[in-house]
Amino acid sequence: MTEENRVAVVTGSAGGLGRAIAQRLAQNGFKVMLHDINKDLLSKTVKEFEQEGFNAAYFVGDVSKKADQEKLVKTTVEKFGHLDVFINNAGVEAVGPFLKIGEDELQKLFNVNVFGTVYGTQAAAEQFIRQDTKGKIINACSIAGHEAYAMLGTYSATKHAVRAFTQVAAKELAAKHVTVNAYCPGVAKTKMWNRIDEEMVKADPSLKPGEAFDKYASEIALGRYEKPRDVANLVKFLASEDSDYITGQAILVDGGLVYR
Ligand SMILES: NC(=O)C1=CN([C@@H]2O[C@H](COP(=O)(O)OP(=O)(O)OC[C@H]3O[C@@H](n4cnc5c(N)ncnc54)[C@H](O)[C@@H]3O)[C@@H](O)[C@H]2O)C=CC1
Ligand SMILES: CC(=O)C(C)=O
Q: Which sign, positive or negative, has the C-alpha torsion 250, 135, 32, 243?
């Protein structure tokens, strides 16, 4: 089933998983609002979407700023007329031992991953309530939102918080016909995992470049690392009417790594 005339926002969609999600939705007929803090990469991605014939617009913003998130929703509605799906995808990571976690790291990761998800969810939900339509909010969680990982302490804490806010928003918004769910990828090859690998290798001299990634990926039951398309396929389902009876869930899409 195609999704003609439905409108989705994907935050952090200049690259990585967000780009793949926006592309999958556009291929299915969605009008997509691309969004990122990285203006140069976003401009490149928008051009590629236009070349593919997708109906796409873009907005440069920072998810950790409430005003940016509100303006993102307003601009989307001005451009496409309404909003159906809002995907809080943007996220950042930090790698290091617990004893070295500092204020800057805590502030940065909580600002983007947690404050960003809360502000995005609020802005989208307010629009759905104004429209008096059903709506879908879909958040980027992680295997690290179900299981905390050594060297990823702050990151794991933020993703546990995302899972908690997903449940709370789902409970409070259900009466307004708004569902809130999350996708929990495992080990996907994006710039984020390139950076994680680099930092883990720096911290452990016995590892060569690529080996931290390989170590995590070697535990995946389905025998291969995750591709952005694997994540996009789940998000496409969560954005569709087929998921209408699902809310408050943080669904693992990790090839068999964490079992809940
Ligand atoms: N790559 C992986 O294996 C996994 C990723 N995730 C989550 O999936 C989401 C996407 O991850 P990736 O694509 O791998 O990351 P990535 O680092 O490759 O891409 C993230 C995008 O978000 C943008 N961004 C960062 N901060 C922003 C801000 N303040 N405002 C707006 N945009 C911002 C970046 O510019 C970038 O384009 C993140 O929330 C991440 O935590 C979860 C589990 C595994
Ligand atoms: C990046 C991420 O969420 C993990 C733990 O792989």
A: positive
What pLDDT is recorded for position 135? Answer: 98
Task: For residue range 107-148, list pLDDT tens digits in order.
Answer: 999 999 999 999 999 999 999 999 999 999 999 999 999 999
Q: Rounded to whole angstroms, how far apart are CA atoms 25 and 113?
A: 23
Distance 132 CA to ligand 1 centre (A): 31
- The rounded distance, in Å, linking the Cα atoms of 63 and 49 is 22
Residue with tokens 């590629």: 48
How far apart, in whole angstroms, are the C-alpha atoms of residue 147 and residue 260?
A: 10
Residue of 156, 77, 190, 169 lying closest to 119 (CA atoms): 169
Residue pLDDT, tens place only, 82-92: 999 999 999 99
Assess whether pLDDT exceeds 90 at residue 98: yes
Q: CA neighbours within 13 Å on the CB side: how many for 81?
A: 4
Among 119, 155, 216, 225, the active-site one is: 155
CA 13 – CA 222 distance, rounded (Å): 27
**Most informative mutation of 33, 92, 110, 155 for ligand 1 (most atoms within 8 A of CB):** 92
Tell me if 145 sits within 8 A of 186, measured CB to CB. no
Question: What stretches of 63-137 show up as alpha helix (H) in DSSP?
Answer: 66-80, 103-109, 116-131
What pLDDT, on the 0 to 100 scale, is given for residue 3? 78
Q: Is the Cα dihedral 67, 73, 78, 79 positive or negative?
A: positive
pLDDT at 1: 52
Assign 220 a pLDDT band (cuts: 50, 70, 90).
very high
* CATH code for the structural domain at 7-186+226-253: 3.40.50.720
